[in-house]
Automatic annotation (TrEMBL):
Residues 1-23 form the signal peptide. This is Integrin alpha 6 subchain. Keywords: Integrin, Signal. FG-GAP repeats lie at residues 30-95. InterPro entries: Int_alpha_beta-p, Integrin_alpha_N.
Length: 99
């Protein structure tokens, strides 16, 4: 009987933990979601950072890492990874930052 009670308690606590750890979106409206995409297989979006550019103009940027992006034409490697700058105030595409 004690084993059955312990198993019941284990199942109940596992169910409670599963309910506490579920995720949800705060903003579900489509106009609040920023969607940007990169090359398939580049792992676009692997790392993200917010940046506030003050000069030459004031704008907010999302810096997006793509560690498996293909190399630029003048680089002597196949996959060097890439860093992209995405203007979050517009619907335009992200642009790759050239170092």
């Amino acid at each position: 009987m004690a084993v059955a009670g312990q198993l019941c308690l284990l199942y109940l606590s596992a169910g409670l933990l599963a309910r506490l750890s579920t995720a949800f979106n705060l903003d579900t409206r489509e106009d609040n979601v920023i969607r940007k995409s990169g090359d398939p297989g580049s792992l676009f979006g692997f790392s993200l950072a917010m940046h506030w550019q003050l000069q030459p103009e004031d704008k907010r940027l999302l810096l997006v890492g793509a560690p498996r992006a293909e190399a630029l034409p003048l680089q002597k490697a196949n996959r060097t990874g890439g860093l992209y700058s995405c203007d979050i105030t517009s619907r335009g595409p992200c642009t790759r930052i050239v170092f």
